[in-house]
Every structure is written in C-alpha cells, then in structure tokens.
Design brief:
The complex is a heterodimer of chains A (about 550) and B (about 160).
Chain A: H1 3-18, E1 22-27, H2 37-50, E2 57-62, E3 74-78, E4 85-87, H3 92-104, H4 139-144, H5 149-157, H6 160-170, H7 182-191, E5 198-203, H8 212-219, H9 221-235, E6 239-244, H10 249-264, E7 280-285, H11 295-302, E8 326-330, H12 331-343, H13 345-349, E9 359-366, E10 372-377, H14 382-389, E11 399-404, E12 410-413, H15 423-428, E13 437-442, H16 447-461, H17 467-485, H18 491-506, H19 510-514, H20 517-525, H21 527-536, H22 547-552
Parallel strand pairs in A: 1-2, 5-6, 5-8, 6-7, 9-13
Antiparallel strand pairs in A: 1-3, 3-4, 9-10, 11-12, 11-13
Chain B: H1 3-17, H2 25-36, H3 41-50, H4 55-64, E1 76-81, H5 84-88, H6 91-102, E2 115-120, E3 132-134, E4 137-139, H7 144-154
Parallel strand pairs in B: 1-2
Antiparallel strand pairs in B: 1-3, 3-4
Helix pairs in contact in B: 1-2, 3-4
The chains are: A alpha/beta (about 550), B alpha+beta (about 160).
Amino acid sequence: MNLSDIQRIAEQEVDFQRGFTHRINVCCSSGCVPLGAFNVLKAFQDAVKELGVERECKVAKTGCFGTCSAGPAVIIDTAERSRPALYESVTPEKAQKIVQEHIVSGSPVKEMLYKSPGSFKKQKRLVLKNAGWIDPTRIQDYIALGGYSAIVKALATMTPQGVIYEVSASRLRGRGGAGFATGQKWGLVARAAGSPKYVVANLDEGDPGVFANRTLAEADPHAILEGMLLAGYATGANKGYLYIRAEYPLAIKTLQTAIAQARSMSLLGASVLETPFKFDIELRFGAGAFVAGEETAILASVEGRRAMPRPRPPYPANSGLWGKPTLIQNVETLANIPQIVLNGGNWFSKTGTKRCTGTKCFSLTGKINNPGLIEVPMGITLREVVFEIGGGIPDGRKFKALLVGGPSGGCLPESLLDLPIDYDSLTKVGAIMGSGGIVVIDDTDCMVDTAKFFTEFCVEESCGKCTPCRAGLARVKEIFDGITTGTSRMEDLAVLEKSGAYIREASLCGLGQTAPNPVLTTLRYFKDEYIEHIQQKTCRAGKCFRKEERDQT
Amino acid sequence: MSATETRRNMLEKVMKEHGHQQSALVEILHKAQEIYGYLSKELLTDISQSLNLPPSTVFGVATFYSLFKLTEPGEHIVTGCLGTACYVKNAEEIMQAIEREFKVKRGETTSDRKLSLFLTRCIGACAMAPNIVVDEEVIGKATKEVVLGKIKSALGGMKIESV
C-alpha cells in the first residue's frame, strides 16, 4: 500500500456505496446495545431481504449518534447523506414497518421519528462528523469519507514543521481539560533533545458522567489513529501508546480491530505507506484509577507502574516515558488533527471564539430531557446547551444547578447559565472545562449532598502521595459528615473554605488542585443550603439526615 | 492436562505475547484475572518471578488499581455504578435495596459465595443512568424491581442464605 492506494480505495468504496439508494445505520454502541441494538440490526437485515430491497439498502452497524436517550437509534439516509431521518426507540418489530414505508413506499414513518430534532440545530460536528455514519469495524468506510488522506497529504507534501505550523495556526487547545495550546506542545516535543520520542493518547476518561471519548473510539476509531500518526510525524516519534480505561470493553475491541486493519494496510508499521516514516501504536489499559488521567500519572501507568503523579518540571515534553520526550494528548484533541491538516489551521480557527477555537464534545446527563453526547462550537452558552439542545428539565421540575467538569468541576447556579462555554470563562466562575461532563441537577437534589458525593469520590481516588490531597480531603469529608448528620457548627464553613483553598494551592497534581472546586462553588453559590443544614438541621431535598434510616437497613 | 496447567499455559502465552515486558504488567494482570478470576498471592508471586520484577512492585500495582480483585469473587457479580450521572439518578437507593435484599455489603461476597456486590465509578453509559451490571449484562435506566428480579433469576430464583 502506498500513498496513491488510499485515493484508489476511497474511490472504489464511494462507487460501492453509491450503488445503494439507502443506507440504514443502526447504532451498536455501548448505549444502545443493552437496549437490544443487535436484535434491531438483525431485524433490518431480515426486513430488507424479505421486502426485496436488499440490493438498494446497505444495512450498517455504526457507532453512536449521541441521542442515547432515544436508543436503540437508527438513521436512514440516502447514499449522499442528503435526507437523514432518525428513528428512536426502535424495536425489531418496528423494523419491517420502517423498511416498508420509508424505503419501499418512500415516506418516513413520522410517529417513530426522533421527538427532539431541534437538539441538533445548535450543534456543530467536527470531531463526531463520522460518528453514527461509518461502520467503525470497516476501515474502507473511514477512507471513503476522506479518512487517512490527511496523513497522505502530510507525508507527500508537508514537512513535520509544516504540520506543526497548521496545528499552531488552528489555535486548537488540549481537550483533556487544561486547555494548553496544542501547536506549542508539539513544537516543544519536536525540538526536545533525546530519542526515541513517544506519543501517548489519553483515553482514560475517568470523570464519572463523561463518555465522549468512549463514543469517539466506538464510532470513529481511525480518526484517533490518524491523529496519532500525524502527531508522530510532526514530533519525530515512532511509537504511540493509546491508553484506554478497562471499563470500556467495546471501545477496546473496536480499537484493536482498527489497529489491526491499519497495520494490514501499512498505515502503521516500519514504513507507513511505503515512506521512510515509521510508526506503530500499542494499546495500554487502565485498571480503575481516576488519577491515571493526569499527565505524569498516565506515564507511570503506561510504564506498568502505580499511576502516581510526580512534580513538574521536568515536563513530559522533555522527560516523559522512560525519561524520553513524550507528547501526551487527549484523543478528542487528536481527532481534530486530520481535519486541521486537510483544511488548514485558518479554516479550523473560524469555528468557536477567538481564544477558544473549534468545537467541544459534552456528555449531557442527569435531570435532562435529552441526555446524550453533543458537540457544540466553543462560546455557546450553558443555557443553550441545557434548554435548547438538552430540552430542559423533565417531570416539570425546576433547574437548580449544573456540574461542569466532572468531580473536580464546579456547581453553577441558574444565574450563570448565560456564560459562554470556553476554558477561561468557566475557570473564572470556579469551574473547569475538564473533559466535558455536564450533569444537570434539579430542585429535588441537595447541593450539600452533591458536594459531599464529589468529595468522597476524590478521597477514594486520591493516590495518597501528597498530604494536602490525602489528609486535607479526608478532613473536608469529615466536616461534610457533620453537616449532613447535624453535628456541625457554623464555624465549620470557614474551615471548609480555608481547607479548600489550601488543598487547591498545595496539592501536587490536578486531582488535588481541582478537588475542592465542587465544595467551593457550592459554598459560593448555594451557601443558604449549608446554613439551613447546620442551623435548622433540615435538608430541603430530603437527602441528608437519613443516617439512622440507613443503619437500620 | 490439568486445569491448573492449562491456566498456567494460557498465562505464559499472554506474557510471551507481551515479550515479558515489565511495562505490560497492568495488561498481564488484567489477563491473569480473566483466566483465574482473581489475583491470588501465589499468582502475583508467580508473575513477579516471570517478569523479573520485585514482588513488592507487582503487589503494589495490583493493590493500587481498583479493578484488580485480590480475593475470590462469588459465582455471580453485580456491579453498581455510582458515577455522577447514576448517583444523581438515585443509584444509591438501588444499591441499598440490593444490600438489603441479598444481605451483602458493597465490596463483599455472600457467605455461600453465590453473589458479590461491587461498585464502579462510571461505565460510560451515563445517558442510560442509573446503570447496574449483572454478570455481563448492563441494565440501563435501572429500577429496583428490574434489578432485584434480574439478580434473583441469575441466582436461579433461589433465595440465598443470609450472611
């Protein structure tokens, strides 16, 4: 396989797909499979045969569209993707009717279509552009949509510096949470002395309530691999490690298949597409440690050690895996790279805001009508996300808060809903972008209990290496135990605030530095609930002061 | 070949696939747990010798990561997700119901070794919250009734003895 073969495969595959008038995409990702997606897939395969439209219809097993609340989800479209129709809660029994009416008679079954089509209006799909459309287990599907043409372009026409130039021009920032300038990081690794160099792709996604990276890996694994290839080419690395949490068995399987296919087509290996560029990718598994997503901890874990962070400097760009220069990048960041290389950095920088370009994937969960995965341009407001895309709060309840940025993010009240989503705005109000989790909380939830939940999470996940995080968080948890059982005093609130500030300042890594965020933001925006708990010993949501009840059980 | 020998051969094959790389320790421990069900002291010692690593390193890694089981789990495994999305959707109440019904605490196994109850912090199916995993099956939008029913049928409809 050489550079021109990719173009040839793309053309062949496009011709093959144009041979069908319709494409039936059945979502078979982690969200829809438990709801019976494989039975739905089989039902469609049978239905097109029975109704004699087998030659016109391509039934494909795809990844996630993001509309997880409507699963099992099926998209029927023309081969040119001109008239997509999304069916929700599809059952094997409905398949026959859908094929009969939509494909044979040519009119979609209106009553079975997705009920909240408006949720797509404000979205913009760059990272997820192939998600739900391609069969992730067929490399040809990816190639047909322009996949691997970015690495072909880079190898044929660009120098490594040229690739870094485009990435810098895109002003893409790391999607793992900290938002460091990607182009700058690549430049640091490329210039760093020492060899070999490594690329580490971070798919640890340990934040509970977040599943963007899982969805990406299950829906479009080759975009991640191509991003890693481009990163390797640009920085001079010949080896990539893709670190994925073991809780994602389907994503692991999909990536294993993708890597094997890429190797068999010499997209990975000793001579990528018959050029002198050598690059291979190995999977490394997590084993249930939240802290492993931290950039120095992930290195320890890839090396087969306990995932414990270490002080920086030296930064991984100079001294990473086995002391060698290492580029660590979240997989969502990497999945943006092929399009930046293909269309140019300037093209990319037109989406989003001036300081935060591009899009961001958010996992929308909790008390919301349309939970699922969304991708929006940077700068969109939280209100648009919750009420327009998310469809508001179910059961006629009232919005109370949203947690953005996972267990180390912040709890923001309704008054901040008009905040634009970008790294800097979120940090200013005490939250973080994090890995893009948004959990909506309604008026039946207690903010004190929520902050306590996150604190308990961080206590359990603290690696114990530094005192502020290990001992400080344990003390914070004790105070919460007091507040929620009625044994605390008002003075404890000042202790909470002080401890939070100390832990934030003095902890070694991002886990400790951000762990007090939920406590500090709830104290800032929902202090009345704390006071109510302490002075009146009541919880308006009825979540706290239930200790005795629990003990009896 | 005895079952012990077969399992040992499978483990050897896995280590060989990884070229006995010390850096593949986590992957090897995953496979070992898959083959043996849990990581016993003897097994960890064996792995440390095969990879030429100090036993302290191997034990250190095995105890650090929460997915590694150091004691033998029960015949059936129920894992409740207490990630944020599941917590907000009242997964805690379902967990308490399981604990009450089957007289087992989280992280523990019933005395007849039929059922183990574990916790996880997110399986990434948050839009389907709350999620409970019964053996291999993920139950999304779980309710107390459905989960208790599934566990009972997994246990063969038998009411298990109390601890």
